[in-house]
Amino acid sequence: xxxxxxxxxxxxxxxxxxxxxxxxxxxxxxxxxxxxxxxxxxxxxxxxxxxxxxxxxxxxxxxxxxxxxxxxxxxxxxxxxxxxxxxxxxxxxxxxxxxxxxxxxxxxxxxxxxxxxxxxxxxxxxxxxxxxxxxxxxxxxxxxxxxxxxxxxxxxxxxxxxxxxxxxxxxxxxxx
Length: 176
Hints:
Elements: E1 9-18, H1 21-32, E2 38-40, E3 43-48, E4 53-59, E5 68-75, H2 78-90, E6 96-103, E7 106-114, E8 120-128, E9 143-145, E10 153-155
Parallel strand pairs: 1-4, 5-8
Antiparallel strand pairs: 1-5, 2-3, 3-4, 6-7, 7-8, 9-10
């Protein structure tokens, strides 16, 4: 892209749903060979250096095997979030944004897109990390679908979500 500055991604982000975060922490301690960098009720984060990965566990109810929560790329600035969002728009995707949102016990700016199968991807920057467990969690809940047919989103709602679904994007329309 001529005239644009390249966005420097820091690491990939993978968030998975788990039925019991304590059991999963024990397993992933062994898998990654490290301790979690953040643990809160129903939530844990591993800052994996090799491979570079921001890996989180989100406790939630589900049937059968564990389910993917969402995927993302952590970047170094809000400017990088906005550049990526603009590129997505230019490429024909329909992003939505959450700015200054409290998510995963951190203050973040982010943009989201959804693949054809409904899998959510985010690009985000952490502005302030390790918020208290009592901090409100608004991740995903400012998004309302503007039109069931267009897929465009409007950032207007202010309802709150349960902390157990902190990092899961809020439902955005039919089939989600």
